[in-house]
């Protein structure tokens, strides 16, 4: 799991769309997404959460966790990658 072929980083072998989840409690995932960016079509970081604030009242939190520099770094390696939200309901 820690060894990979550095000459294969630019090649996507799997022809179907790929989606990966990045969780804030596993920071290694952020680095893996940057290293293998060309292999992914969709990246879904878990930054946002929805909290109930009352009857039929909710608020979206976690916007401050969005790492724009990391997004730019990944996009620099794969401009076609799409970032899709994954939301936790608290």
Please tell me about this protein's structure:
The chain is an alpha/beta fold. The protein has two helices and five strands; from the N terminus they run E-H-E-E-H-E-E. It has helices spanning about 30-35, 70-75, and strands at about 20, 40-55, 55-60, 80-85, 85-90. Strands 1, 2, 3, 4 and 5 form a five-stranded mixed β-sheet that branches. Helix 1 links the parallel strand 1 (about 20) and strand 2. Helix 1 runs parallel beside helix 2. The longest helix has 10 residues, at about 70-75. The mean pLDDT is about 90.
Rg (CA only): 15 Å
Shape: elongated
Average pLDDT score: 90
Helical content, roughly? 10-25%
Q: What fraction of the residues are assigned to beta strands by DSSP?
A: 25-35%
**What is the makeup of the main sheet?**
5 strands, mixed
- Low-confidence region ranges: none
Order of helices and strands: EHEEHEE
Count, helices: 2
Please give the alpha-carbon distance between the first and last residues: 32 Å
Number of strands: 5
Helix/strand structural class: alpha/beta
